From TrEMBL:
Binds 2 zinc ions per subunit. Residues 566-723 form the Helicase C-terminal domain. This is Replication restart protein PriA. It comes from Maribellus comscasis. Initiates the restart of stalled replication forks, which reloads the replicative helicase on sites other than the origin of replication. Recognizes and binds to abandoned replication forks and remodels them to uncover a helicase loading site. Promotes assembly of the primosome at these replication forks.
């Protein structure tokens, strides 16, 4: 009997790690960070992750055995799991939750993962068992769970894993309708050509078609037809490129039933041929100074903030720092809020660092994500094959770095670093700081508009602070003016949604062949429609929101749950057929501006037009090549775009930014307006920004015009201190959800009563959030504020306990209660 025990994490929302016995024959295979197959609960098998090994038998527990070890090499390192533990504790979730967020789908084999075949396996040299399982899986989505139930003893995790490795199946957490695996045309011999003899005969038959014969020969060489028994395929591109053979000749071979063409899934990760193609830009003197200051700050502080205005060239500084770290043999992580919007940065990094760079994000297939994961792991053993730099969105903090030396968080103020749902509700910016501490890696946070929490840490000396106040080409920051739309509407001076100020500037830009960007935070045609007679407004049947009209699709759509219905011809309430659109979405603005700028080419950038990566790239390309004159967009246009010829930026409606009911509203409005303004006049001439509002006297607007970051910061700090908000107080949000409204109301009050037992906690609510019902679930929030001097872990334990007590009260078992630490 073996005396080895393994502690494992299961991909389930369970708090504890579980102990299993390692049978003798697996002792040499098992290791920390490898996946194993274990039984949990009734009869179900799970793939779990080994986090520790020990020879001490756990007391009083009836330990089960590990069935199988899935990996030859660990898929995570124990130093990576340290961060998982930290996150589970800090964000009040389970290690299972973190495990699920950390590993890419293809490595998890969760019971709810969807599995489907993407290849018939004829070329993959499958074993009998693999073939059998592949047939069973088929092209329909079934979950791992369903397969287990259906196949019973024929189901096997190792076989599932090897099918995945051989590219025959996809494993996804949820099937993303938008995602299409990339395929290419491949060519293989016709199945009737069973052996070399037939092949030779066929070649002879082509005596009089020399070109076809030559191509067939070339093809046979490519696939090694004369040496090997198993005949593989070759991609059409590889077969024809640079050979002089045309597709037409290949077509003839297909016609004569000599070869067949088929589609095969290929990786999107292009192999870079050379190591690095472009040398690094020299820094200007301001950047040089900032770089030196950052390096000096790194000597003293773990974390440094670079506060550099828009277009000051922060990216260039990051590249210099990364270059240095790479030369010292360490790895770098470069986090960006949304990878889709960073095609420009991707290009710059790839140009400089070539195949050392891996890009990690959610639009990749599960195979591709695993491929990148593996290459980060490989860096430990074979640095020349592995990735030394990862550019990624928030989940990249979980990558299996072995020698991390530098973490950069660009646009650190962005709230997309925060995961809202599901747990862990972590902020990748804050976890980057922890990651840095755990790995003794330096952390650089960068922004033109740092979050006030970060800036507070910087001015208080917790973080280092470096300023960069000059744009790369020394152009001044844009001139900003406020346009009073209320007045303009009254005087009938508006040109559709454009104030006279903005209209004139845009006309001027168009004449000089310069570009304009307009920001409107609503997509679709109109945010709601209304019956002109009785005021009826169509609402979502699942959520407490009005439906947005999309003119192109002629549909009303819910932006919270995706529900959509046809635009009604008449009112549901009174039958009148005068249904009017209300308010302006990006789609309507595009429509209305066309006649105002008949010679300009307009484009729109929002979730509807930029669904896919290629669509987005096209929009960006058209701006770069100046095919687009006027770009209208949502939040997307505020983020990091770098174009030389944009001279005018318009914020069409600043009112809803200024009046948003949140303690961070002013910080956000300021950041957003400054960021979008920063898209103007980046290279040549000073740009112009127009902020349209009906409250031109709003005090924040004056500070925005003067671009006075520190004044806004100071004013807000006063308020936050007074009203006891972060960074002075800690904040935890609890959301109670249930499909029944009364249950939510009751449970929320019960929870509050438990929480009130600790009189050090300041409680707000329970209250309905702005949208009180989403996807049929009602929700109520309680906000908890408490002093930083309070013991954090104990306070959290108390809160967790209150939540659990509430759930255990009669009729509350179906309540979902989420704890959100540091909510955004
Ligand atoms: P930020 O991220 O600070 O807003 P970027 O890094 O995007 O600014 O830089 C703005 C523009 O200036 C980019 O087009 C960039 O290529 C250019 N740039 C910045 N620094 C340099 C440099 N040292 N040499 C050449 N071009 C630079
Ligand atoms: Zn009506
Ligand atoms: Zn809805």
């Amino acid at each position: 009997m073996s005396d080895l025990y393994a502690e494992v994490i299961l991909p389930l929302p369970l708090h504890d790690a579980f102990t299993y016995q390692v049978p003798g024959h697996l002792e040499s295979d098992i290791a920390e960070g490898k996946r194993v197959v274990v039984q949990f609960g009734q009869k179900k098998l799970y793939s779990a992750l080994v986090t520790a090994l020990s020879s001490k038998k756990p007391e009083n527990i009836d330990v089960k055995k590990i069935y199988e070890v899935l990996d030859e090499q660990p898929v995570v390192l124990s130093k990576n799991i340290k961060l998982w533990r930290w996150i589970a504790k800090y964000y009040c979730c389970t290690l299972g939750d973190v495990f699920k967020a950390a590993l890419p789908g293809g490595l998890k084999l969760e019971s709810k993962s969807k599995v489907f075949a993407v290849d018939d396996g004829t070329e993959a040299e499958l074993t009998e068992k693999e073939q059998l399982l592949l047939q069973q899986i088929g092209s329909e989505n079934s979950t791992v769970d369903e397969l287990q139930k259906k196949l019973r003893n024929d189901f096997s995790y190792p076989v599932l894993k090897s099918l995945f490795k051989k590219n025959c199946i996809q494993i996804e957490e949820k099937i993303n309708a938008r995602y299409k695996p990339k395929t290419e045309t491949f060519v293989k011999l016709h199945p009737e050509i069973e052996n070399k003899k037939i092949l030779n005969n066929k070649l002879n038959d082509l005596q009089r078609a020399k070109k076809q014969q030559a191509l067939l020969l070339h093809f046979c060489e490519k696939i090694n037809a004369f040496k090997k028994d198993v005949l593989l395929s070759v991609s059409k591109k590889e077969l024809l490129d640079g050979t002089g053979f045309t597709p037409a000749i290949l077509k003839e071979l297909v016609k004569k039933k000599l070869v067949i063409q088929f589609q095969k899934q290929v990786s999107r990760i292009e192999e870079e041929t050379e190591n690095s193609q472009v040398s690094i830009n020299l820094l200007n003197k301001h950047q040089e100074k900032a770089l030196t200051e950052i390096q000096a700050s790194f000597e003293k502080k773990q974390v440094t903030l670079i506060h550099g205005i828009t277009a000051s060239g922060k990216t260039e500084i990051y590249i210099h720092l990364i270059d240095e770290i790479l030369k010292s043999g360490k790895q770098a992580l470069y986090l960006v809020p949304e990878i889709a919007l960073t095609t420009q940065i991707v290009r710059r990094l790839k140009n400089v660092f070539g195949k050392k760079v891996g890009i990690y994000h959610s639009k990749l297939s599960s195979q591709e994500r695993v491929e990148i994961w593996d290459k980060v792991l490989q860096f430990q053993t074979k640095p020349e094959n592995g990735y030394q730099v990862i550019l990624g969105a928030r989940s990249a903090i979980f990558m299996p770095f072995s020698k991390l030396g530098l973490v950069i968080v660009d646009e650190e103020h962005e709230n997309s670093f925060k995961q809202f749902d599901p747990a862990p509700r972590y902020n990748a910016r804050d976890m980057a700081v922890i990651l840095g501490l755990q790995n003794n890696a330096k952390v650089l946070l960068g922004s033109a508009t740092p979050s006030f929490e970060t800036y507070y840490n910087a001015v208080n000396g917790k973080y280092g602070l470096v300023n960069l106040k000059k744009r790369h080409t020394n152009v001044e920051l844009p001139e900003t003016l406020v346009a009073d739309v209320k007045k303009a509407y009254k005087r009938r001076q508006m040109h559709s949604v454009l104030s006279p100020e903005l209209y004139e500037l845009m006309q001027g830009a168009a004449e000089k062949n310069e570009q304009s960007i307009l920001f409107q935070n609503r997509r679709g045609y109109s945010p709601f429609v209304e019956c002109f007679t009785c005021g009826w407004i169509p609402k979502c049947k699942n959520c407490d929101v009005s439906l947005t009209y999309h003119k192109y699709k002629k549909r009303l759509t819910c932006h919270y749950c995706g529900y959509s219905q046809q635009m009604p011809d008449s009112c549901d309430n009174c039958g009148s057929n005068e249904i009017k659109t209300r308010g302006f979405g990006t789609e309507k603005i595009e429509d209305e501006l066309k006649p105002l700028f008949p010679n300009a080419s307009l484009a729109r950038m929002d979730l509807d037009t930029a669904r896919s990566k290629t669509a987005l790239e096209k929009i960006i390309q058209n701006l770069e090549s100046r095919k687009t004159d006027i770009l209208i967009g949502t939040q997307m246009v505020t983020k990091g775009l770098d174009f030389e010829h944009v001279s005018v930026v318009g914020i069409l409606n600043a009112d809803n930014l200024l009046n948003f009911p949140d303690f961070r509203a002013h910080e956000r409005a300021f950041q957003l307006i400054l960021q979008v303004s920063g898209r103007a006049g980046r290279k040549n001439n000073r740009g112009k920004v127009v902020i349209q509002t009906s409250q031109p006297e709003h005090p924040l607007l004056n500070l925005i015009i003067s671009q006075d970051y520190t004044s806004v910061f100071k004013a807000q700090m006063e308020e936050r201190k007074l009203f006891r908000y972060p960074p002075f107080f800690r904040l935890i949000k609890i959301v109670v959800k249930h499909k029944n409204q009364q249950t939510v109301d009751r449970a929320a009050i019960q929870l509050k009563q438990f929480l009130e037992k600790n009189n050090k906690l300041i409680l707000l609510g329970p209250e309905y959030p702005l949208v009180s019902r989403i996807q049929l679930w009602y929700q109520k929030e309680i906000w908890i504020k408490f002093d930083k001097s309070l013991h954090l872990d104990n306070t959290k334990d108390f809160i967790i306990d209150c939540v659990s007590k509430t759930k255990h009260l009669p009729d509350n078992s179906n309540c979902v209660i989420n704890i959100d630490v540091d909510p955004m």
